[in-house]
Amino acid sequence: MVQEQKTLLAAADKLKEYKIKNTPQRQVILSYLMTSHDHPSIEMIFNYVRGNGFSVSLATVYNTLQLLIDNNLIIEIAADSGGHMRYDYFEVPHYHVICVNCNRIVDVFDDEYKKNEKNAQLETGFQVFNSQYEVYGLCPECQEKIKQNA
Amino acid sequence: MVQEQKTLLAAADKLKEYKIKNTPQRQVILSYLMTSHDHPSIEMIFNYVRGNGFSVSLATVYNTLQLLIDNNLIIEIAADSGGHMRYDYFEVPHYHVICVNCNRIVDVFDDEYKKNEKNAQLETGFQVFNSQYEVYGLCPECQEKIKQNA
DNA sequence: CCGTAATTGATAATCATTCTCGATATAGTA
DNA sequence: TACTATATCGAGAATGATTATCAATTACGG
């Protein structure tokens, strides 16, 4: 079985687990988010689905992403300096380090970071559901580029 | 001297410190963000400025906020479930705990939290400029409300 | 395999944000 | 205080991402 089919099946399983009705569009979108580390934009997702031979409209992409967000399967990242939202599979909590120059997004899995939610709960009395941490800076490559142009 | 005038002067000083040209609109907008704990939306800021007897257009509010963001004086928070951005004076780093029911935003000043940026820098090699942490949950009051309706 | 409720998708509508550009106000200097 | 270059202001138009519409299609429990 090719890798592509495996991830489609994994996505289908995940949809069933979360009691979300399975459709080809949803399977492809979720499998893309589960396996890529692209943190894709709406447009990238739209092109990916069509590029893989499935019909889809922008409305469906928006609807599907909202559904996945509501089920805490993915999160929305306000990351792209072009004003486009980016999306990420988020079953395993992590945070994002974003290059303000090239818009690259790097995942960081850090156990220390997970303590922040508990602290927030203690400090405020809120019942915490989730949280989002984003760090902005220059990636090593862009630091080099800027040095060379100076 | 009344409090209102003091905060206008404090805002003027801050603008001068950051070498931002001073205008009445900028002074009022910054003083509002410096003193209120509203985390106001664009619309709230617009109404506040006009309500205090200053002329202003929406374009100026947007321009001014972008200018203050670029100078790291304030940040933009994707917080309001109505899809409106919210703004906050951010000279002293802190994070936000947001009620998903009533949209209330609570500031938390926590020294532990500040370490996250350093960790991110070490993990990724990025040159970090700033970061943003948002926690989503239910505030104590909304927890009560929901209990009563159950 | 059927019936029903949910989903899809082409298009239109919405609305927050950005752009335009003439009018106006500011900072710096003397 | 007056002058001048320069930047900002602001009303309305333009933009463009997102949402709504609704008929046709599809998924899936029984």
UniProtKB/TrEMBL annotation, chains A, B:
<dbReference type="InterPro" id="IPR002481">
    <property type="entry name" value="FUR"/>
</dbReference>
<comment type="similarity">
    <text>Belongs to the Fur family.</text>
</comment>
<dbReference type="GO" id="GO:0003700">
    <property type="term" value="F:DNA-binding transcription factor activity"/>
</dbReference>
<dbReference type="GO" id="GO:1900376">
    <property type="term" value="P:regulation of secondary metabolite biosynthetic process"/>
</dbReference>
<keyword id="KW-0238">DNA-binding</keyword>
<dbReference type="GO" id="GO:0008270">
    <property type="term" value="F:zinc ion binding"/>
</dbReference>
<feature type="binding site">
    <location>
        <position position="102"/>
    </location>
    <ligand>
        <name>Zn(2+)</name>
    </ligand>
</feature>
<feature type="binding site">
    <location>
        <position position="142"/>
    </location>
    <ligand>
        <name>Zn(2+)</name>
    </ligand>
</feature>
<dbReference type="InterPro" id="IPR043135">
    <property type="entry name" value="Fur_C"/>
</dbReference>
<keyword id="KW-0678">Repressor</keyword>
<keyword id="KW-0805">Transcription regulation</keyword>
<dbReference type="Pfam" id="PF01475">
    <property type="entry name" value="FUR"/>
</dbReference>
<dbReference type="GO" id="GO:0000976">
    <property type="term" value="F:transcription cis-regulatory region binding"/>
</dbReference>
<keyword id="KW-0862">Zinc</keyword>
<dbReference type="InterPro" id="IPR036390">
    <property type="entry name" value="WH_DNA-bd_sf"/>
</dbReference>
<protein>
    <submittedName>
        <fullName>Ferric uptake regulation protein</fullName>
    </submittedName>
</protein>
<feature type="binding site">
    <location>
        <position position="139"/>
    </location>
    <ligand>
        <name>Zn(2+)</name>
    </ligand>
</feature>
<dbReference type="GO" id="GO:0045892">
    <property type="term" value="P:negative regulation of DNA-templated transcription"/>
</dbReference>
<keyword id="KW-0479">Metal-binding</keyword>
<feature type="binding site">
    <location>
        <position position="99"/>
    </location>
    <ligand>
        <name>Zn(2+)</name>
    </ligand>
</feature>
<dbReference type="InterPro" id="IPR036388">
    <property type="entry name" value="WH-like_DNA-bd_sf"/>
</dbReference>
<keyword id="KW-0804">Transcription</keyword>
